[in-house]
Amino acid sequence: MENFWQDIRHGARVLRKSPSFSVVAVLSLALGIGANTTIFTVVNAILLHPLPVKDISQVVELDTIDTKTHLGFANATNATKLGLSFSNFQDYQKQNEVFTGATCIIATPLTWSGGVEPRQVTGQLVSANYFDVLGLQPAAG
């Protein structure tokens, strides 16, 4: 234990003798710790915690594929995103006898003007039952 305190005293003397090194060392540590904390926070929120959806294991995504061209909305074999019309979704919803509920999500470009300059962002238009199907409550509205 005595060696530990000798090392601490020696380190403090070295840091006092060269203040510029001390500042660089402290700033380097602060930058490294800050960057790691930020990355962990993002990974923790996105990857390590499941989405707050009721019965997440029961949620599935349905896609359509054109049998002639083999293209589809989210076909895993490099399909061009063709999309799905809302009227087709309504037909699927009416004929559904398998799933508890069905909801439609359509990505759409929006202009966000909350900052200094307006910018283009991607939003989502969802069907009226979106939150009910996922068992969520909207934050506002």
Explain what the structure shows:
With 141 residues, the protein is α+β, with helices and mostly antiparallel strands. The protein has 2 domains: 2-48; 56-134, no CATH class. It has helices spanning 2-17, 19-48, 86-95, 130-134, and strands spanning 105-112, 119-126. Strands 1-2 form a two-stranded antiparallel sheet.
Order of helices and strands: HHHEEH
Largest sheet: 2 strands, antiparallel
Mean model confidence by pLDDT: 83
Estimated helix fraction: 40-55%
Number of strands: 2
Q: Report the end-to-end length measured between terminal Cα atoms.
A: 61 Å
> Strands of the largest sheet, in order across it?
1-2
Look at the helices and sheets and give the structural class. Answer: alpha+beta
**Computed CA radius of gyration, to the nearest angstrom:** 27 Å
As for the number of domains, it is 2
**Strand composition percent:** 5-15%
Could you name the ranges where pLDDT drops below 50 across 5 or more consecutive residues? none
Give the overall silhouette. elongated
Question: Which short descriptors sum up this protein?
Answer:
141 residues, alpha+beta, 4 helices
Describe what is shown at a glance.
This protein has 141 residues and is an alpha+beta fold.
Task: Walk me through the topology.
Elements: H1 2-17, H2 19-48, H3 86-95, E1 105-112, E2 119-126, H4 130-134
Antiparallel strand pairs: 1-2
